[in-house]
Amino acid sequence: MASKDRLPVVPSRLSLQQMKTKYQGASKGHSMLKKKSDALMVRFRAILKEVYEKKLEAGEESREAMMALAQAKYAFGGELKHTVMETVKDATLTLKTVSDNVAGVQLPSFFKSEAEPGEDGGGTMMLTGLGKGGESINDARDVFTHTLELLIQIAALQTSFLILDEAIKLTNRRVNALENVVKPRIENTKKFIESELDELEREEFFRLKLIQNKKERERKKAEGEQAKVANNVELLTPFNPDKFANPEKATDLIGVAAGVDEDILF
């Protein structure tokens, strides 16, 4: 096993326990990131479908708005731009942003906010075209307002689309890193530590076996020497006839022993 495929650790029981804890954490993190990626992909596909539908609708609304503007110009009898610019002081429509949390990713949502008629000249705008073409101008204004709402929704969806795209790429990179780099390295480190610990246990068992065999040989050698000493002591110890139940047999044995001793001496 190459050293680059595992973490640099000293093989020990503590290191093995640490690697097991790291592997559990990496597995849990991988599972959570995988679920996050799946949730983001579900929302990503839903937004993609909604963007497609809103853009088609916005295209139809834009055509209707331009047609209504042409009709208003025809009914008004000239260009509306200067009249509108002179009448309107401030914007009648503003945006509000609200964040939506999807699996830890903040997605912005834009909403239209209309000002009160008395605040910003909205009441003055209602008088535009009062003399002629007022109905056509109001119809064009309503159509453009609806088109603007669609554009606001499309802007929010596209912003969420881009944010989700980056979040999914980042999450998938982390998932792939945990699955293909971190977890295999921790697993290889665990196997390396276990193999080294097994080797150390075999060496320790072999060493203890050698020590046990050596002690056994020394014990047998000591027992043999003790047996020799005991035999010598027994040979040198005077014979006691009282140990035998038959005194005559004991006397015969004494004679035999005495004869053996005489043979040894002479």
From TrEMBL:
Alphabetically sorted, this entry's keywords are: Coiled coil, Ion transport, Transport
- A Pfam family this protein belongs to? ATP-synt_D
InterPro entries (UniProt xref): V_ATPase_D
Q: Which GO terms describe its molecular function?
A: proton-transporting ATPase activity, rotational mechanism
Coiled-coil-forming residues are: 183-228
Superkingdom of origin: Eukaryota
What family is this?
Belongs to the V-ATPase D subunit family.
- Matches recorded under PANTHER family: V-TYPE ATP SYNTHASE SUBUNIT D
This protein is called what? V-type proton ATPase subunit D
Q: Which organism is it from?
A: Rhodosorus marinus
